[in-house]
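Worked Example 4.2. Consider the chain below.
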Amino acid sequence: MLQKKISLDDALTRSMDWLNSQLVSLLEQPPSKERDSQVALALLGLSRVAKGRESERFFISGYSYARTSRDPAARRLAEERRSAFPDW
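Applying the procedure from the previous section yields the following structure tokens:
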């Protein structure tokens, strides 16, 4: 069976929708180091697919959560994403 091809914009929209739903679910949980790490990863993922100021807003929040969680993987991704925002 052939799959319908989707545009890059459609794929990015679906990614953003999925990441946003994950973020909402995570933020409903009580704060913990693990939750903060997952929130950081979701926000940093959103910073990759969003555009303009929205991307920067997601990055700033994700960077903060990554530092708070002290999770090495989240912190590494935050530092990698930081290069996309020279003012940071």
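The mean pLDDT is 90. Residues 31-88 form one domain. Compare this with Example 4.1 before moving on.
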